[in-house]
């Protein structure tokens, strides 16, 4: 299967460097694929609430365009007014670990 002009968002916790090293290698045959990282901050037992009413949305954007699209999409389904922070994927990987 060949993917092109697609945007892949990794939402689970990964080790720093994953989005810059491992993920691109897995998608090396897929031209024009952007990889972003937007982990969720949810507590066990409060997953629905944490997903629909986050205090913080962390976006490690693969490009400015991808980050803007991901921000718009996220803000459409949340019922809170979260703080949205956009940065590079590698910075977001480190921030996720630091904030946990």
Automatic annotation (TrEMBL):
InterPro entries registered for this protein in UniProt: NAD(P)-bd_dom_sf (IPR036291), UDP-Glc/GDP-Man_DH_N (IPR001732)
GO molecular function, one term: NAD binding
Pfam assignment, any one: UDPG_MGDP_dh_N
Gene3D superfamilies, per the entry: NAD(P)-binding Rossmann-like Domain
UDP-glucose/GDP-mannose dehydrogenase N-terminal domain segment(s): 7-73
Name of the protein this chain belongs to: UDP-glucose/GDP-mannose dehydrogenase N-terminal domain-containing protein
